[in-house]
Amino acid sequence: MSITIAVDAMGGDHGPKVTVPGSLAALAHENDLNLILVGKPDHIEAQLSKSGPGTSSIQVQPASETVEMNEDPARALRRKKDSSMRVAINLVKSGEADACLSAGNTGALMATSRFVLKTLPGIDRPAIVAALPSLRGHVHVLDLGANVDSPPELLLQFAIMGSVLVKRVEHKPKPSIGLLNIGVEDIKGNGIVKRAAELIQQSGLNYCGYVEGDAIYTGDVDVIVCDGFDGNVALKASEGLATMISSIMREEFSRSAFRKFAGMFALPIVNAFRKKIDHRRYNGATLVGLNGIVIKSHGGADALAFRQSLLVAATAVREKVIGHLSDELSRTLQAVPH
Amino acid sequence: MSITIAVDAMGGDHGPKVTVPGSLAALAHENDLNLILVGKPDHIEAQLSKSGPGTSSIQVQPASETVEMNEDPARALRRKKDSSMRVAINLVKSGEADACLSAGNTGALMATSRFVLKTLPGIDRPAIVAALPSLRGHVHVLDLGANVDSPPELLLQFAIMGSVLVKRVEHKPKPSIGLLNIGVEDIKGNGIVKRAAELIQQSGLNYCGYVEGDAIYTGDVDVIVCDGFDGNVALKASEGLATMISSIMREEFSRSAFRKFAGMFALPIVNAFRKKIDHRRYNGATLVGLNGIVIKSHGGADALAFRQSLLVAATAVREKVIGHLSDELSRTLQAVPH
Fold first, then answer.
1. Inter-chain contact B237–A240, Cβ cutoff 8 Å?
2. For chain B, what is the mean pLDDT?
3. Is residue B182 included in any domain, yes or no?
4. Is A14 contained in some domain?
5. Considering its fold, how many domains does chain A have in total?
């Protein structure tokens, strides 16, 4: 099976300087991958030529505009019809690509994807979902920032989508679902969370009740459902803490000649450790609920992280996530009284 | 200056087994401290007698009831008038203690404190605030879970209280304030956050705009203001991540005989590192906005962590936080149109 992914080559903080080497690294890792790099051809080709001989697995698709990282999503959608982001999404719509990937403006990616691809039947708004490392594997958390003030019905849709996604990409028959709250007791939380708990309970999903923020890392459940504001706060706080910890570690190991010496002995251990907590290895969030696969890379991603998000896209295609989502959405939504 | 703190000796997951050794450890650290241990005298004295000769700095105050960790706060307030928690708070009200500390049920501590001590003029609801470690020192975050669905006016009150607290306990003349959001651009967030930004902007505080979750650890601002749901999620997610990282580290250093050997060299470094990220060293959250000092220890605290929260209480008393809060609240609230 050959997989084609459209890459917004201009997106992200670094543009083609990261997206092109990241794309080449993904091609070296996956045999069945073809990439369409979308953007300004001279910018893209300048980076490609730096990387040695060309490959037939890469194609360049021109797009004259670029969505800025802090541009208003509605404005980008209305005005920039030939942006690298928009053209990449169009390639999914037309069937020329199986998925698209962008490290660009998240709001614009979401708005443009919704406009071009539409949502799946039964889904009001797409969510952003990503796997985070836990003590027992991964936990998929959604929504990570696409929706603020999500009503209970939307949280139920997140639960269904998270369950299907994990069933496919992690090959778990009945993923366990937790609902993020500020305590595990029934009296905790606000009216929205309490109503969402009732809906998810009735859905036939493997619902395990409320979880607190630490459940992201204990791995007690496979999927954590939350409003996008809370998910985003948890994700960014975790990134901040992981960065601080890496920095403290570096400092502790370079504080004296003896420590540098001791550090040499411990280097393989410290490297294995840092690799495990490196959030670049978890880059690649899925915009789930769309009628097509759209993956978001962190804007500040480097080539390693960008490559990782391409692998996430390839897995979603390979596991036919969209087809399974459509099937199971209609089945599960029927089980819940509206 | 002599400081007296009432300790809810029965509170927390471990009760006197932790609160008594933690109290003795705090006395060993602070010269001017007196403690009133509140609870069942036989339980408390059994622990005291294990710790060698008595000290005149400790007094035991009987209380016949205990608030359970998962008890409904309203029920505890109504029914348990002789709980160790209630009696400890009463000692603050009567002036016999300068502050009280509990590792017990957070909701019950908040409800009982509000009922007994009342809030300061201008404060609708108290908040929970704690210092978290950042790359540049500490960041004080509030609210950490006392209030869900906080309206903009409450977020302004949090900003004022956080500013005064940091001014006193960190000796910073003009603490910088950030408002937690899911992006730093003006278009991000919901209506509540946007309105809160306007109010804090007008207040004369040193407001620096929106911050994202990672700001807790970068230390870009001194105070982060947020709704209690979001603050609690960020705090718990961070605790979960820190625990996971410690556990991975232990595992990496014990994976083989060579690694254990290398680990011996690196032990002082690893210990210094773990000490820095140990959240027990940041135990002790303040219930700010009350007409009295009430400190909450983590329910699962060990003696080291419990001792730390006693030091937080002693600092709040020493720095006359309540008096300064009253003064500055009335001044700052006058600056904001209602």
1. no
2. 90
3. no
4. yes
5. 1
